[in-house]
Design a protein that fits this description.
Order of helices and strands: HHEEEEEEEEEEE
Strand content: over 45%
CATH topology: Jelly Rolls
Radius of gyration: 15 Å
CATH superfamily: YhcH/YjgK/YiaL
Number of domains: 1
Distance between the termini: 31 Å
Number of helices: 2
Helix content: 10-25%
Length: 140
């Protein structure tokens, strides 16, 4: 599937989640999409375009499932295992310093990874800057 079609499908999916609760549809023009950042939010979802030039911290979202679609670049991404050095950074969110175990993925343009709520995940290495699209589905 072409990236633009995939992005459109994900944005429509996120908007339909909100529509089920009586909300209106969300339209984001191409200039805002190209600029990145938060594109749409609701009580049970968020949609954004993120950019990363370096490794991040290990993350665990207790109530958020992340669907990540790689638009550009490459990264080593680790999922699962046990978070090391974890601390609560805000309600239902933890940050850590490492993952013991887990599965390593080499992500490149066009790859998709879905990280269920509660699973540690980490952009461990970012040898080339990455741009990625994220749809978060948030549990009540």
């Amino acid at each position: 599937m072409k990236p633009v079609l995939f992005l459109t499908a994900l944005l429509v999916m996120a908007a339909s989640i909100g529509a089920q609760s009586g909300a209106t549809a969300t339209y984001v023009d191409h200039e805002k999409v190209a600029a990145g950042g938060t594109l749409a939010t609701g009580a049970d979802y968020s949609v954004s375009i993120n950019k990363r030039t370096a490794a991040g911290q290990v993350e665990v979202h207790d109530k958020e499932t992340d669907t990540i679609y790689m638009l550009d670049g490459e990264a080593t991404f680790v999922t699962g295992g046990t978070m090391i050095g974890g601390r609560v950074s805000r309600p239902n969110q933890q940050l850590g310093t490492d993952i013991n175990g887990g599965q390593t993925h080499h992500l490149t343009k066009g790859d998709v990874v879905v990280v269920p709520a509660g699973m540690p995940h980490w952009f461990k290495e970012v040898p080339k800057p990455v741009t990625y699209y994220v749809v978060k589905v948030i549990k009540p």
